[in-house]
Amino acid sequence: MLKTVLRLPGENNSHYSYRAIKEGILSLELHPGELLRVGELSETLKVSSTPIKNALWKLQQEHLIELIPQVGTYVSKINLELAEEAASMWFDLEKKFLEMACSHFPADYLQQLKTNVHLQNILVNQKSGLRNEKELANRFFELDDQFHMIIFCSHERKNTWKAISQMASNYHRIITLNQSEDYVKRMVAEHNDILSILENKEVERVEPVLRNHIFKPIENWRKLQG
User: Into how many domains does the chain fold?
Assistant: First the structure.
């Protein structure tokens, strides 16, 4: 069931409805296969039915919502094929950017990565103010998105990363299922490793380290599905 989401300053009803429902799906508050009722969503978010319907239409285009005529609207089940497609595109581009960065990586972007990884290390070592593993994971996923965006931005590809993030909604739900503290610690360790690769210009390590980082969650999901 969707919880109330804080509205951003100046956010209109359409964007708020879209963002709130999408966050609910990606965080698994709205479970795969769950029936969505416009009236309930409208009441929860305190908006009319029109922005809710518009949000559901947009989310259907992103394969997060499935509309079955004369039956109802449901949260789409996790699609492994779409997750793999997004992961492959992400891997191919980031591998190229990291290999190029081993030859030259602007100092300001390197410092941004260092700051980001430092915050991740603080997060897993101190966990101050966090009530549970879900809060730890949610904060980590914010830093994780920023980490990879910095790499894409260093090659003037910010919008490319945004497109990949939007395409990777099924991948993100697979990641969300791994909300244990041990999982977050492993991901942070891998980010430290990627930073070390850039600092030491170890181009030969880019491919195996990044491949494991991106595809391991999919392999784990496949094992869980038998």
Answer: 2
